[in-house]
Design goal:
The complex is a heterodimer.
Chain A (H helix, E strand, L loop, with lengths): L11 E2 L4 E3 L4 E3 L7 E3 L14 E5 L3 H8 L4 E4 L5 E3 L2 E7 L7 E7 L2 E5 L21 E6 L11 H17 L3 E5 L5 H6 L9 E3 L1 H12 L8 E2 L13 E4 L15 E6 L6 H7 L3 E3 L7 H11 L3 E7 L1 H10 L3 E4 L10 H8 L6
Chain B lengths: L1 H11 L4 H14 L2 H11 L10 H12 L3 H11 L2 H8 L11 H10 L5 H13 L3 H12 L8 H12 L3 H8 L10 H6 L14 E2 L1 E2 L13 E7 L2 E8 L2 E6 L3 E2 L10 H4 L4 E11 L2 E2 L2 H8 L6 H6 L2 E11 L2 E2 L5 H13 L7 E3 L8 H9 L6 E8 L7 E2 L4 E5 L3 E12 L8 E10 L2 E8 L5 H13 L1 E5 L2 E4 L4 E6 L1 E4 L7 E4 L2 E5 L11 H11 L1
Parallel strand pairs in B: 1-13, 2-14, 9-11
Antiparallel strand pairs in B: 3-12, 4-5, 4-7, 5-6, 7-8, 7-9, 9-10, 12-14, 15-16, 15-19, 15-20, 16-17, 18-19, 20-23, 21-22
Bound molecules: zinc ion (2 copies).
One zinc ion binds next to loops of chain A.
Protein name (chain B): DNA ligase (ATP)
GO molecular function (chain B): ATP binding; DNA binding; DNA ligase (ATP) activity; metal ion binding
EC number (chain B): 6.5.1.1
């Protein structure tokens, strides 16, 4: 039992994951368990080794693609499943396609485990739905007032301007974004009258998964050996963040590099990456939306899982909302949050 | 100000120097004379003085943003830069502004005359009218900490291109203690007589470190070899019967060194000497530490002059009879310098930096090996026919420093860095053994790669013993080789010693803490080199 938590809490933070004792089921567990409910397909939330998985119909294809032959059941948003008297339902989290908050109700008490989420409608993920509850479990990846996202139209206009200017100078535009979610969000907002969109294999694999489930993404071309380097200038390449430091990008010349991430808010983070541009674009809530989300649930108790947990719980407690930080293993691998936060040394709290 | 903010933002987005020059030239083209001059002043470090306490700025920003003060402070710690933190936490502007850079700077300068309440009113109203990028630049102006990734060299290049003038001429014009309040653009950059400012020094010529074998330089006959003295590099100027003393940091330090004031009548008008301001007594240099005791003081008392007297160790002659002779070969300049110094009748002010007789590079190796005994930092190797160039240029002048002193020490405290490294533990305190006890003796915060800092950061988090605010005490397990340039006795330090330029040379993962050096080892070094 972690400090400040109670034996009879409906959801408990154990060393395997978030556990619901009366139903004996885990949410986004990080160690192998019998039964797992999965909020979304990022690898810190959906891991190998569980006996059975339950997720939304829309999240399933990506999870299956990543984890292969698993025992996976799906459920529609809003539909109630009762296990041992505990009622479970999945509600849109707005983070990526199919991502869910999981509502857990038992004997009149309601908990919501929100996974990763954002409030802005990105046109790909099902729009976030506020779910009233007594206890709200939230991330706080960007839980500081210095994180304040601009409306996405402004960000995409800036990305397109950058691409247009590079194209005019005969440069390749390389932008990095996490391959599941962020990459597709960018693809559907690019102005394809400027040029072609090329993709790294990791991104294109996810594109194929989404197209197969009926998402109308703009046409993209996988980067392969067969394409001559002289074909790239003027066009745009989308790759996962890890590609920036690899020899894979050598074929793009002359090159302008950009990173799309919430961390790009900070000048220091932009400079550390030594890329020409940092676009502030995140699939997580910023400070104002984090607070709006917490307020909207009406929760009397808030449990903060990852990010600036100590700072944010202190803030909530001062506001009169009982808040606690919980130890989890979220954002230890997979999601772009991890990669960039590890780099800036923020894995601590 | 909009154009200047845009310039700043764009400069920040590129690492290419050619692009930076283009951006500057573009900006110079659109700005009026006043704004252009202010932009040059700010970019070359001539910013208005800080006139508001940063603690007040923090409070005002927190209250305008509607967050508690501690959250403002925590945010600041994550960002590592106050101007940026404030720009980020404030809510979007409620109106727009359209004032020029000069107008805003006048506002900032005017703050000094206001009460705190009036300052608050002006600043809050400014914040409410600005975008995030504008606030950042404005905050940098109020906090007097404006720094952009633009070197003096780039600014000079851009002005030279914009004005279609020689870079050297622009470099010279930009030197000295002008501010936009004491001159205007026309006068500073375009007037036909740049020497109208008698105090104006020449840009210093800086040497690169010699890393190759000296034999690769060819015959020693082609080179003038001197000791590299350990003082403050400076220029002494005599023009129109006045003396001006400049330090390499482009600071006018005439008042700090009254020893040189008699030169006004001892040297002919139109003389500029490059040399080392050196603490010196009984015909011998003293340790740099002695000079340090008088650098920070406001008043140079008689007592200080007696305990820390200085001379100028002359290296080179840049102006002779009012003529800029930097383009002439070094050998010729040296001959004129010797003649001038010989003509100074008053003893104990000017000394000639001795030219060593070296017929073979092995003799230079021996001379370098004696550097510490001579209280010098190594040798200077200068091509006999070299011109006196400006800035750091490769090829003609080399500094051939001695290897640093080193000790192996144990890390006992770690603290997070600032700015770029705000989230890494980069500042460490080191200790050596005194019996069973570890005695702290120095701090160091540079010399490792980002990768190593990351690795140590994660080690520090796992091995913290206690926290004292931002400082953590850690298990005494990690050993580092600390390099330093000098060692002195110090009563201010618990260990009784102070190091000069300490930095981490390498992380000795191979070494257990028990094998680190002892305080006795350091005391031995103090006797030998202090
Ligand atoms: Zn995620
Ligand atoms: Zn996550």
């Amino acid at each position: 039992m972690q400090d400040g938590f109670k034996k009879d809490d409906l959801l408990q933070f154990t060393e395997r994951g978030i556990w619901c004792p009366p139903a004996d089921i885990y949410i986004d567990p990080w160690r192998p368990v019998k039964r797992a409910m999965i909020t979304h397909g990022h690898s810190d939330h959906s891991r190998y080794g569980h006996d059975s998985y339950l997720c939304t119909t829309q999240a399933a294809p990506a999870i299956k693609y990543r984890l292969g032959d698993i025992n996976l059941q799906t459920v529609d948003f809003g539909k109630r499943t009762v296990i041992n008297g505990v009622e479970f339902s999945f509600h849109p989290a707005g983070h990526i396609l199919g991502s869910a908050q999981i509502r857990v109700a038992y004997k009149g008490e309601v908990w919501v485990a929100s996974g990763d989420y954002k409030l802005e409608n990105d046109g790909l993920a099902e729009p976030f739905e506020s779910v009233p509850c007594h206890t709200f479990i939230t991330e706080s990846t960007f839980g500081l007032p210095i994180y304040d996202w601009k409306p996405q139209e402004e960000v995409f206009a800036a990305i397109n301007d950058w691409w247009r200017a590079n194209a005019a100078e005969g440069k390749v535009s390389l932008i990095t974004a996490y391959s599941l979610g962020k990459a597709q969000r960018i693809i559907q907002s690019l102005d394809t009258s400027i040029g072609k969109i090329y993709t790294h294999g990791a991104v294109e694999n996810m594109n194929e998964v989404m197209r197969a489930q009926g998402v109308p993404l703009a046409p993209t071309t996988r980067v392969t050996q067969e394409i001559a380097p002289k074909d790239y200038p003027g066009h745009l390449v989308i790759a996962p963040p890890s590609a920036l430091n690899s020899s894979w990008i050598k074929k793009f010349k002359p090159l302008s590099r950009a990173v799309a991430s919430g961390w790009m808010s900070l000048r220091g983070a932009r400079r550390r990456r030594s890329v020409e541009r940092g676009f502030v674009l995140s699939d997580h809530v910023d400070w104002k939306d984090l607070n709006a989300a917490v307020d909207a649930t009406g929760a009397e108790r808030v449990i903060v899982t990852h990010g600036y947990t100590n700072i944010y719980t202190k803030y909530l407690n001062e506001k009169g909302i009982l808040a606690q930080a919980a130890q989890t293993e979220f954002s230890n691998e997979g999601d772009d949050v991890k990669e960039e936060s590890a780099e800036s040394g923020k894995t601590e709290s | 100000m909009r154009e200047f903010v845009q310039l700043f933002t764009r400069l920040d987005q590129t690492t290419k120097t050619t692009r930076k020059v283009e951006l500057l030239v573009d900006y110079f083209g659109q700005a009026n004379d006043q704004d252009r001059l202010w932009a040059i002043a700010i970019l070359s470090g001539r910013r208005p003085k800080r006139s508001v306490k940063s603690s007040l700025l923090r409070q005002w920003a927190a209250s305008l943003a509607g967050i508690p003060d501690w959250l403002m402070d925590d945010s600041y710690h994550v960002v590592g830069d106050l101007a940026e933190t404030i720009a980020l936490v404030l809510r979007p502007p409620v109106r727009t502004q359209n004032r020029s850079l000069t107008e805003w700077i006048n506002t900032v300068k005017g703050l000094a005359l206001l009460t705190d309440e009036e300052k608050q009113e002006v600043i809050l109203s400014a914040w409410e009218s600005m975008t995030t990028a504008e606030r950042f630049v404005f905050n940098k102006l109020i906090t007097g900490s404006f720094r952009v990734g633009v070197s003096q060299k780039l600014i000079i290049k851009a002005i030279a291109r914009f004005e279609e003038q020689e870079e050297n001429a622009i470099a010279h014009r930009l030197m000295g203690n002008w501010t936009p309040d004491t001159t205007d653009y026309e006068n500073l950059i375009r007037s036909s007589n740049p020497a109208d400012d008698d105090s104006r020094p020449y840009p210093f010529y800086l040497a690169y470190a010699l890393e190759a074998e000296p034999a690769t330089l060819g015959s020693p006959d082609l080179w003038q070899i001197e000791r590299k003295w350990d003082g403050i590099r400076g220029q002494v100027i005599v023009r129109e019967g006045e003396v001006y003393v400049w330090s390499r940091g482009e600071e006018l330090v005439t008042a700090k060194f009254p020893e040189f004031h008699p030169l006004a009548s001892l040297l002919p008008d139109g003389t500029v000497i490059d040399g080392e301001i050196l603490p010196f007594k009984d015909e011998k240099p003293l340790s740099f530490n002695v000079l340090q005791t008088r650098i920070g003081r406001k008043n140079v008392t008689k007592k200080i002059r007696e305990s820390a007297p200085v001379i100028l160790m002359c290296y080179d002659l840049l102006e002779y009879n009012g003529e800029d002779i930097r383009a002439r070969p070094l050998g010729e300049r040296r001959a004129l310098l010797e003649q001038l110094v010989a003509g100074v009748t008053e003893p104990g002010i000017l000394y000639l930096s001795e030219v060593l007789e070296i017929n073979d590079w092995s003799e230079a190796v021996d001379a370098r090996a004696q550097s510490r005994e001579n209280l010098s930092e190594g040798l200077m190797v200068k091509r006999m026919d070299s011109a006196y160039r400006s800035g750091r240029k490769k090829g003609d002048w080399w500094k051939w420093k001695i290897d640093p002193l080193t000790v192996d020490a144990v890390m006992i405290y770690a603290q997070q860095g600032h700015g770029r490294r705000a989230n890494l533990f980069t500042d460490y305190t080191f200790a050596v053994w005194k019996g069973e006890e570890l005695v702290p003796f120095t701090k160091a915060y540079s010399g490792l790669t980002d990768k190593e800092f990351k690795e140590i950061t994660s080690w520090v988090k796992r091995n913290t013993r206690e926290r004292f605010g931002p400082v953590r005490s850690v298990k005494p397990e990690q050993v580092f080789e600390i390099a330093f340039e000098g060692i002195n006795a110090s009563s201010r330090h618990k260990s009784g010693i102070a190091l000069r330029f300490p930095r981490m040379l390498r992380w000795r993962k191979d070494k257990p803490a028990g094998e680190a050096n002892t305080l006795a080892d350091l005391q031995q070094m103090l006797i030998q080199y202090g």
